[in-house]
Amino acid sequence: MPYELPPLPYDYDALEPTIDEQTMRIHHGKHHQAYVDNLNKALDGTEWDGRPLEQVLALLDELPDDKQAAVRNNGGGHANHSLFWQIMRPGGGGEPSGALADAIANTFGDADQLKAAMNDAGVKRFGSGWSWLIWDGTGLAVVSTPNQDSPLITSDVPLLGIDVWEHAYYLKYQNRRPDYLAAWWDVVNWESWLQGVPTATCGTQKAPERSSPGRRVSSAASIWSSRLRERALLRSSSPTSPKPTGTLPSTSRRRGRSCSRRPRRRR
Ligand code: MN3
To answer: Which of 67, 73, 97, 121 could pair covalently with 144 via S-S, beta carbons 3.0-4.6 A apart?
Structure first.
């Protein structure tokens, strides 16, 4: 099977007390695993089997009609959760720094206003879905998506995403979604975009082993590759830099990136 559940980069209880151990075990081991299994089932025997997930999602409307819903839901679920585990960390929180902080300041004013915008988008999402900070090709934006729709479907680059499905918070926060959203920022990993986000979404490539700090290497071809994001954010945060083209590089916008051409980054 081409897609595999990536290991958590920390222990199940590592995000306590913000996110409890039981929620993490069920969320990662049951929910995310189910998205992976159902995605593999949907693509089995098709020409799409084994292609990089960001490519499959960006070209969703070219899939066979009877596969699109399953891939939208389960491919989106796999991509979204692969990112979600990486943008949280034990001892997270604090303030963004560097180019990301500059880009946030230019777009939202400061990190508190970004948090307020993402929390608001999450509270207003009716039913299940996600609240996102994305790079849309021209700048940063906060959006929300229903169900497991991934920003990759519209070729946007997800930088942060908060899961507002009840399975993400109900055991600890019950119906208090606003409390969960407010607390979530205590575990945000602001540096994740610099580290390259291991996604395990690239064809037959196996998920990386749990990596120690400082040795994290981007593991898969990814539209949200660290270099792409770095360039994007640097462009958006520098008033004297050339205007962005308004689109992501054509290879990632339309065809995705192949595994062999993925950028590597070491820290
Ligand atoms: Mn979830």
So the answer is: 121
Angle at Cα 49 formed by Cα 46 and Cα 51, nearest 5°?
Answer: 135
Tell how far the Cα of 106 is from the centroid of ligand 1, in angstroms: 30
**Neighbouring C-beta atoms of residue 11, cutoff 10 Å:** 12
Which residues neighbour ligand 1 (ion) by CB within 5 Å?
163, 165, 168
Q: What is the pLDDT of residues 245-256, one digit of tens each?
A: 333 232 222 222
Structure tokens at 133: 């900070």
Instruction: Report the separation in Å between the CA atom of 238 and the middle of ligand 1, taken as the mean of its atom positions.
Output: 35
CA atoms within 13 A on the CB side of 248: 26
User: pLDDT for 17-34, tens place per residue?
Assistant: 999 999 999 999 999 999
Sheet holding 157-163, edge to edge: 140-146, 129-135, 157-163
Question: CA 24, CA 35: separation in Å to the nearest integer?
Answer: 15
DSSP-assigned states of every residue in 141-181: EEEEEETT--GGGGT-EEEEEEE-SGGGTHHHHTT-HHHHH
